[in-house]
Design a protein that fits this description.
This protein is mainly alpha-helical. The chain has a single domain, classed as Orthogonal Bundle (434 Repressor (Amino-terminal Domain)).
Length: 90
């Protein structure tokens, strides 16, 4: 199992944001609408171009029906690593 120390917090946030967005069946456009941002902003966050403010983190979490801290927990890191390894084999 991978530990938090193996990842920087921003990478964890990027992976979780995308994971929860897909899990909720939301497009970047819909999440942007629900969190009062733009699709480009959501895309930039998912790609790690920059980090959200605490206020924006809370708005995004509410739009995803989460507590903000859930976007910072390394819950889905192992799933992402497995899927990346499968993609690399193709």
């Amino acid at each position: 199992m991978t530990t938090v120390e193996d990842y920087i917090l921003q990478e964890i946030f990027c992976i979780n944001l995308k994971w929860y967005r897909f899990d909720r069946g939301l497009s970047q456009e819909k999440l942007a609408e629900l969190s009062n941002t733009t699709p480009k902003y959501i895309s930039d966050l998912e790609r790690g171009k920059f980090c959200p403010s605490f206020n924006k983190l809370q708005e995004i979490a509410v739009a995803l029906n989460l507590s903000p801290y859930e976007l910072l927990k390394p819950e889905h890191m192992d799933e992402v690593i497995v899927s990346k390894r499968i993609d690399e084999r193709r």
